[in-house]
Write a structure and sequence with these properties.
two-stranded antiparallel ribbon; binds magnesium ion; 239 residues; Rossmann fold; binds adenosine-5'-diphosphate; 7 strands
């Protein structure tokens, strides 16, 4: 989801999660109208990850934070343990399971908040600016993690201003302006429409700025190639 401040991105996320009530229309999840579902019922299917993990985390220990959402659900201690372990493994946090949250980096804390939501096995996760304020290394780490979750069948919805992220990771782009839907299209289409780029409030990437400064003729192509090169390099390192 893209759009300037005040465009209505967070409001839509809150409507979907049930924190706000719509004045008109329906909200459907996989074809079923969820308007009558409570916040609690929705939370089992739709997770909302706030921008700042420090606002979401309430327990001193990673394990407790991730287990928290399961405590009210009537699972046995054994079932909870199994589910928490599985979730920590998905999130790459298993080695840290006995650690205090305070020992983690910002990106790792973000993973803890995502784990706290994934532990409920939602169908869909909404993330408000998941990479804001991250350096390139942590940005890549978070995005590759979300990509892997998506490949495992979780639907990922992101709110972002980052053009690079949009180009590399998002097949579908939804642009808002002044509380209204402006476009529901592909990332490529938005990037080729200067008016949409403006209204989506997309931030030029540093690669774009660099290529302009160096007189590269086609900065978009340069950015694409850089991303492809880097991805291949990462795969070689992992492989
Ligand atoms: N469709 C809408 N109808 C009425 N008010 C809206 C609508 N979308 C947004 N608003 C109002 O606009 C303000 C900013 O919206 P918000 O969702 O926080 O923007 P964003 O997250 O895109 O910066 C909120 O106070 C919200 O109540
Ligand atoms: Mg917002």
């Amino acid at each position: 989801m893209f759009g300037k401040n005040g465009a209505g991105k967070s409001t839509l996320a809150k409507l979907i999660c049930g924190f706000e009530k719509p004045t008109a229309g329906r909200i459907c999840l996989a074809g079923r109208d969820i308007s009558g579902d409570t916040i609690k019922e929705r939370a089992q299917r739709i997770g909302y990850v706030m921008q700042n993990p420090n606002q979401m985390i309430s327990k001193p220990l990673i394990w407790d934070e991730v287990e928290m959402a399961l405590l009210a659900g009537g699972m046995s201690a054994e079932e909870r343990k199994e589910r928490v372990e599985e979730t920590l493994k998905i999130c790459g946090l298993y080695p840290f399971r006995k650690w205090p949250v305070s020992a983690l980096s910002f990106g790792q804390k973000k993973r803890v908040t995502i784990a706290g939501i994934l532990v409920q096995r939602p169908q869909m996760i909404i993330l408000d600016e998941p990479t804001a304020g991250q350096d390139y290394h942590h940005y890549t780490e978070i995005m590759e993690f979300l990509k892997a979750l998506n490949a495992q069948g979780f639907t990922i919805v992101m709110i972002t201003h980052d053009m690079h992220l949009m180009l590399e990771y998002t097949p579908r782009a939804i642009v808002f302006s002044e509380g209204e839907l402006l476009a529901d299209t592909t990332a490529a289409h938005v990037l080729n429409d200067p008016d949409l780029v403006e209204r989506a409030n997309l931030k030029e990437t540093s690669l774009y700025t660099l290529s302009m400064a160096c007189g590269v003729e086609d900065p978009q192509e340069f950015t694409k190639r850089f991303i492809a090169y880097e991805e291949a390099h990462r795969k070689r390192q992992e492989g």
